[in-house]
Amino acid sequence: MPIRILIVDDNRDTLKTYARAILRNIKAREINQNSSEGYILQLPEIDEADTILVAKEKLISKSFDLLIVDLKIPGSWGQEWGGLELISESKRIDALRPIIVITGYGTTELARKTLIEGAFDFIEKSDKRN
Questions:
Q1: Which CATH number fits domain 4-124: 3.40.190.150, 3.90.79.10, 3.90.1720.10, 3.40.50.2300?
Q2: CA 2/CA 71 separation, integer angstroms
Q3: Are 29 and 39 in contact, with CB atoms under 8 Å apart?
Q4: CA atoms within 13 Å, Cβ hemisphere of 119
Q5: Considering the entire predicted model, what is its pTM?
Q6: Can you tell me the distance from the alpha carbon of 34 to that of 28, in angstroms, rounded to the nearest whole number?
Q7: Are 85 and 79 a contacting pair, CB within 8 Å?
Q8: Which of 5-9, 21-25, 47-51 has the lowest mean pLDDT?
Q9: 109: exposed, middle or buried (C-beta count within 10 Å: 0-12, 13-18, 19+)?
Q10: What mean pLDDT is predicted for residues 84-107?
Q11: CA dist., res. 69 & res. 49, Å (int)
């Protein structure tokens, strides 16, 4: 059974980029490992959500092995950091599910807060202007 990943970001282009990057990376590893070790990796099933409400519905209705979430996405009640809301909801549903947080607005305080809330890792989006 393949691993199931839910990616949440309010930018549809970013969602597609993350999904392609994950699949491309796994396929590249499969080619390298398959040639020398003789096995084939199973590609993950990647699902996407561009709102917190859609993400919550998917977390409730399906089982995911990993959640990747942007922090600065409108929450259910219009709050700016809806990703924090989704971290809490994900942990309520499955306390053991790893969560990777991605944001372009990272601070030490925010990183610490997400890790305390239960995130597994905190990644800053790169600034394309540099």
A1: 3.40.50.2300
A2: 26
A3: no
A4: 23
A5: 0.82
A6: 10
A7: yes
A8: 21-25
A9: exposed
A10: 90
A11: 9
